[in-house]
Amino acid sequence: MLSQLHLAFYGVCLFMLSAGSHQEVLIEESTNIESLHAPTGGTVELPCDVTPALPDDRMGLVIWYKQGHDTPIYSLDTREGVTSHWSDPTTLGSRATFRSSTTPAVLLLTKLRPEDSGQYRCRVDFIRSPTKNTRLNLTVLIPPERLIILNQEGDEIKGGVLGPYDEGTEVNLTCVAVGGRPPARVSWWKSHALLANSEARAAVTFTLQRSDYGTDITCQAVTDPTITPLSENVSIDVNCK
């Protein structure tokens, strides 16, 4: 009988220990992965859910991870009653600040670099509530380095002048955006009229008329509305009949 009671007590203890351990490792995973984008050199706010599931609870530790890094890149510790910030000097350094007073709380990143792109995870450990994880993707936008305008022979047009060509000549031009992330939308414009629009490169064909003499045709590359477009003008030189 003593042996049976001992085994029963041992089983209850195991259950309580298991239940207690389970409570400690409860984790709430965010089902949505938010996508954010911001220009190189700009600023972005990475949201993090710091709302506890249980009443009268608070966050104790916030840890930020970035895909491709084996260790955290940022942390905020309030468990001892004193707020302590840490930022990985090789990744974020002084460019990162966590703001818990906003809704939602955010990790503010400044002076964005192309290598800041990637997937981030914010882990929040509370005093009593289950741990929460917020995941998001950040894309740092990079404008094209330059535009190249090619004629129908594939030669680059330099000096900003197309021609001279005889009136009635059919002309084919291709504009290529070099570099950039994501690929820019490239378009051709003439007298505020859109002639062509495509990704990374755009081609346009038109027949020269007398009225085209001295007219500018413009190639424009747009990465994002937040970034100033890159443009290149070509003046048309026509030999009128």
From TrEMBL:
<feature type="domain" description="Ig-like">
    <location>
        <begin position="144"/>
        <end position="235"/>
    </location>
</feature>
<keyword id="KW-1015">Disulfide bond</keyword>
<dbReference type="InterPro" id="IPR013162">
    <property type="entry name" value="CD80_C2-set"/>
</dbReference>
<feature type="domain" description="Ig-like">
    <location>
        <begin position="23"/>
        <end position="139"/>
    </location>
</feature>
<dbReference type="InterPro" id="IPR013783">
    <property type="entry name" value="Ig-like_fold"/>
</dbReference>
<keyword id="KW-1133">Transmembrane helix</keyword>
<dbReference type="Pfam" id="PF07686">
    <property type="entry name" value="V-set"/>
</dbReference>
<feature type="signal peptide">
    <location>
        <begin position="1"/>
        <end position="23"/>
    </location>
</feature>
<dbReference type="InterPro" id="IPR013106">
    <property type="entry name" value="Ig_V-set"/>
</dbReference>
<dbReference type="InterPro" id="IPR007110">
    <property type="entry name" value="Ig-like_dom"/>
</dbReference>
<keyword id="KW-0732">Signal</keyword>
<keyword id="KW-0472">Membrane</keyword>
<dbReference type="InterPro" id="IPR036179">
    <property type="entry name" value="Ig-like_dom_sf"/>
</dbReference>
<keyword id="KW-0812">Transmembrane</keyword>
<protein>
    <recommendedName>
        <fullName>Ig-like domain-containing protein</fullName>
    </recommendedName>
</protein>
<dbReference type="Pfam" id="PF08205">
    <property type="entry name" value="C2-set_2"/>
</dbReference>
<dbReference type="GO" id="GO:0016020">
    <property type="term" value="C:membrane"/>
</dbReference>
<dbReference type="InterPro" id="IPR003599">
    <property type="entry name" value="Ig_sub"/>
</dbReference>
